[in-house]
Amino acid sequence: MAAPLSKEDKLKKKLRHFFDKNEKLSKRWKSLLSYVDKAAPEETNKFYNENFYMIYGVFLDTFTAYEANCKKSKRDAKEVQDLLTTLRHVLVHLSELIRKKWQTRSIATVLEKVLYKENKISIRLEGLELLMIFLEAVQVPEPTQEELFSQAIDLTPFTVESPSVRFPANSLSAPDKQSVLYPSSSPASVENSVKLIDDMLTYIGKNPANFEFWYDLIKKHYFSVFYPDLARRINLVEPDWPFGFKTCPFPVQAVLINHLGTWFSQESTLKTLWSTEQNVQLNLEIFQQAVRLPITDVETIHKTISIFQNLFFGPVIHPVIEPRLVEYRQFFFQQLSAVFTTERSPISDHITLSKDVLTRWKTLFMEQFDKFPVPTQETFLNVLLDTTIQVLKPRKDFSNQMAAPMLDTVLVIWIRTKTRTIELWKILQDGISSLFNSLEPVNQSKQKIVQLTTLIKRAMYPERVRKVKPPKRDESGKEIITKTEEIICPDVEPPPPKIAIDPDIESVSWTLEDLIFVWNQMLQIFGPINQIADVNIHATAIEALKEVITILLHAEHMMPFEALIDPATPKPLNIINIFGPWLFQACTLPEAYIRGKATAISILCKIVVRHFGQPLPIELLSHFYATVSNCLKVHPNTMVSWAIILNSNNIFSMAIPGANTLIPHYIAEIKRILRGKSGGPPEVRTKCILIISSLICYPNHIEKLGTPTELYGPSEGTYSFSNQLKKDIVTILIDTANNDQDADHKVMCIWAMCVMVFEELTHTPNVALIKEIIKTVLPFCAQEVPAVARAALDGLSCISLLFEELREMEEAVIHIIIEMLCANILRMILESRTNKSYTLKENLVADHFYCLQDWIMASTVYLFNKASLASKVFEAIEIGLLGQKLQADALSSTPATPKDPKLVKKANRMSVMRDSPLNLQQSQDPYLEAFDKLMSAPSHGSEVIKEAAGILLVQLCNFMQNFPCPEGIEIFSSHICEEDDITEQVCEPLFYIYNDFALFSLVEVPHGDDRIARVVLRDSTGKYAWDSTISYINSDSDIPQTVNLLQQPILAPSQMDAIRVSQSERPSGTPPVFFDQGPPADQIDDLLQYLGEVYRDCLPENDPSPLNQPRPPNQEYSKAVKEIEEALISQQRADSEIIQAVAQRNLEWEDTYALQQPVPASPLSPLHFCRLFLSHLGFLAFDKQASFSMVENSQRFQRCLQQLDKTSGREIVKIGVIYVREGQDDQKIILKNDQQSELYAEFVRGLGWPIDIASHRGYLGGLDPKLTTGTHGLYYANSVMEVVFHDITSMPSSATDPQQIHKKRHVGNDIVHIVYSEHQSDYSPSTITSQFNDAHVVIYPLPNGLFRVQIFRKSKVQLFGPLLHGMCVNKKILSTLVRQTAINANRYVRYSTEGYIRPFPTRRKALNETIEKFKVETPYEDLIGELLPKVGVPISHSSSSSSSSSSSSSSIPVASSANSSQ
Fold this sequence. Notes:
Blueprint: H1 7-14, H2 16-19, H3 25-38, H4 41-50, H5 52-71, H6 77-93, H7 95-99, H8 104-114, H9 121-138, H10 143-151, H11 190-206, H12 211-226, H13 228-233, H14 250-264, H15 267-273, H16 277-290, H17 298-313, H18 325-336, H19 338-341, H20 347-368, H21 374-392, H22 397-417, H23 422-433, H24 439-460, E1 487-488, H25 503-506, H26 512-523, H27 535-557, H28 561-565, H29 575-586, H30 594-608, H31 618-634, H32 639-647, H33 663-675, H34 682-694, H35 698-701, E2 706-708, E3 718-720, H36 721-739, H37 743-761, H38 767-777, H39 786-799, H40 803-834, H41 842-858, H42 867-882, H43 889-893, H44 901-915, H45 920-923, H46 926-936, H47 943-959, E4 990-994, E5 998-1007, E6 1010-1018, E7 1023-1032, H48 1083-1094, H49 1115-1144, H50 1168-1176, E8 1188-1191, H51 1195-1206, E9 1211-1220, H52 1227-1231, H53 1238-1247, E10 1249-1252, E11 1272-1277, E12 1281-1287, H54 1301-1307, E13 1312-1317, E14 1335-1341, E15 1347-1354, E16 1368-1369, H55 1371-1391, H56 1399-1414, E17 1415-1416, H57 1420-1427, E18 1447-1453
Parallel strand pairs: 9-12, 9-13, 13-14
Antiparallel strand pairs: 1-15, 2-3, 4-5, 4-8, 5-6, 6-7, 7-18, 8-17, 10-11, 11-12, 14-15, 15-16
């Protein structure tokens, strides 16, 4: 058996057929393929080199045979592949022979046929690679071989959109179909050509050693076609070379960029690509065209930018690049703009691409800009700006959507440079301002300037530190969000919104000098602001300036005073110098620019009309006044004049030099606005009223001055402040109050008119003007809108403070006010009964009673001399208490049986009383029964009205012309207690309840050697005490003169009209005239006389005497009459004789029957004198038994009694008074004030009167009698209220407590603060931090002698007065009006507080609760038993005696010297 063959033998065996030349070609071919397939590479190489001639012959014959089969349509893809594989071996293993020109033409011919464009793409791809291997083997290609290379890739598919493109050589194409080795299933396509190019570039990238060879070939034969313009410029082809594409086909660029990135990453290829100028220019051209690719190639664009960015700006710059790096970078920036300027579709994708590139650009700037040389920096900035301008100027959709990001990038980059090169800034300013034909450049510029302004605010304007309380938290520690109440003040605008600053701007290391420089340069972008053609864009640009100015004004306002005077702190920017020229110029633009003009003039008003800093130069003020007057004249009742009104409402209350010249112009414009049909926005009308209110005191203050005016022409004349201005003010206020539909505007006008009355009454009063104002205000008292009615009533109450001045002017005005109030009460209550659709406004009626009370209690004379006036007042009280007049119809209109248990009980009690024999007649009185029922349940059904009427009645009964009492105004009710003055307790005080409305106590106290009865009464108004002794009449001189109560009042008035009892002086036959002045005349007497004169038939026969004269007795009775007269005269004589004899004690039986004088009786009861007192007053009558109830006198009762005594019958008010000196704006500094300026001291003296805190017996408002809060305080009171002013200057300052807690404890808890500020800036209501300060009345002394008023209130507080925000008042009325304004503010806050009850009902409720809780139902006999002596009980008694038959009790009101219990 033969031995097995070795591997080598087996391979040789395979070649047996190959070496046999006689074998068929097919067997020889297969033998060759079989060997090559199994042989190792080194064996294959050896085999090819030893048998190259035979191998190539077999290959070429086989290829020729395959071509013959192709003509017979016999094609085999595998056979083609085998041919190509064999050709690859030939080219690889026989490269040395090929380099020596061996078979090069034959091989080139084969390759040409393989590369026919009709062949399948896979064959062409492999053929292209074989061609490149062949050319590498040749090393120095012949022209025909290079031409073959240039034709290898078919470029005609790229000419679809440019069919006119020509190529230097046609692509390889088969002469006929039979010549195609293996046809493609699809026609020539871009994709196939791209694959060939991609394979070609991939191949050369894999062979770095031959890269330069191939790159030169590609440049020559392909890049010259792809980039023909560049090829001609760099002499790669002849200057007139006519071939090539206009721009490189986009797919080719995409492929080229992909490979370019790989080549740039390799050291050798990178050197080759940048070693020659041609290569450099070609690279730049590739970049230039790549960034202009369509949006479909967005990835290629991104990749291109990344490649070149990394090349030029990477962390490591290659040495071959570095010499020309500046040039390359500048080129990069310049060409990058093509991303934005090349039109692409769709726009959305183009926008996304552009934004991505912008981000790259911005990032590049952030990371490397500082490292760039100056030329590169300038190129960077200029290209960025130019690109932005090119993109935005066309104003297309793409421009509109790219405006914001591009402008943002440009401005941020320019700001971050902080460059001091003015030329560069000028380029930016001109470039951006040239784009002001659209809104976005304006908005973007505004945003950046606002952000820079915010940075300046932080750097230059230190802010006052406000103490912020830590947030409240729940049990879990979570913060409780509480809503901060808004502070309302016409001058206070919300602070500028918090500006979000771009981190790229904020992160710059700013110095103040750099910041201000950049801010100024950015601001100059708005240099040509008044040259903007579009009026809307112009308005937006002016509004941008307004926002910047607003930030600066607020920052300046919030600066602490210490910073202003600190030399180390930068001075605030001069706003008017920086912005004034633009703003003044804007105000002169044509009518079409009205929006911008309105904004400009509003900013000017904000800058000029403010309480801060040094006054402006008079030249500037004059220019401002001229601008304002011109705007008011040219743009009446438009947004321009509205802007002036809105932003200069304090122009006359700031005492700005020369502002008075604008008064006629403002008056004329305010008339137009308030009377016009459009009327302007509500806020404009509000400011109009405030401006008018601020002028109220001007006519009297500058009465001798006037100002020329040309409102309607050059001959208008002089505007008089004393006459014309006063008339205009009153007319505007009255018209607005009557015609304006806004309730707040009516309220403001009413308050302003009240202040006008004050102003007039404290000067030479204009009677007609005052009467006209009061005539205007009175109808508003019954207004349907509660706020308006309340303002009218409260305003009238304020005027009542000037009662004496008004009475001296014309007393009839007072009567009219009182009568009108009474008439309103009657009308509203009676209409509610007759008109079912009418809803009774009980609070409004009650307010009428309170206003009426203020007027009556303010009177310094007895008002009720006038019968009709008294009648109307008491009629109103009757209606208020009962709901109707007590007439016969009251019997049918009241319910027969009360359903309330309390009423049933009272009715039963009354029935017991009336069923008694002593009261039989009284029980039959229907009026009394109706009265009781209506008192229990008034027909109007309102307890609020009944309560108000009751308070008025009590005030009349208790305090009319009896207030203040001799003990002082702080004493409203007695401070006597049952234990006072008792050294030895004889018995417990006797307490009893009278008619369920009053609590009495009886106690006897020592009085020398005797005792007196002390009666203490507690009712709803307070506590009163009487000490009662028995007075014995011993002589005629002790008998008091009688008073005719029918002709004179109990409290005699200081002046009374003469009593007229007859009209006998009237001519005969003239009818008598009804008189309603003074006490009534004898009208019946006059009427009888008149009837006898006119109707003679009425006279008796034979008796012509008048009917009003007594008739003589009838003759038949004359004798009897004479006898009676004689008897009476005789009796008179006898009585006289007896009286005379007794007086002379000459009676005969005097000594004979003389009696011993009895010893004075000793009291047997501890309440002996109390019993006499009650008895003499008729309280112990049997018919009074139902009125008395006993009390359970226990410790609980005594505690309730003490609490009741602490409940005031008057309203108590605490008001903080804060003094702010010049330069003080911090809470700690302000609270340390304990000295007063002369003006402030004068102001405080007008608020109230000083009190000694240690001895004061009235309300103290928390001030310490132990003098820890000072020795003296400020106090004010009237019959309905007590006010304590917490003046911080009267409280001692603590040197060890910087917070001055002992002061803040008081003012911090006050509802209202009165602030007197001498500081140069406006007071902030947040200066004194507290949650309870709901209203602030701030006073500023002005250089012109007036005082400006500023009002702050929380949103929950109703608009109050009489002082309104911005008013200027004189010193005479300042304190009074400030006090009344603060009191009203306090009331409005309290009355709006849920659960608040006035003092009178509060005390009444406490009294009722005490009565109900401790009332004991005991028989009447028990009360008598307490008063009568008890058998077997010893009692100490005095030596005084009593005689009930000849004594009478005199009650003396007692005021105790004890301290107030409150």
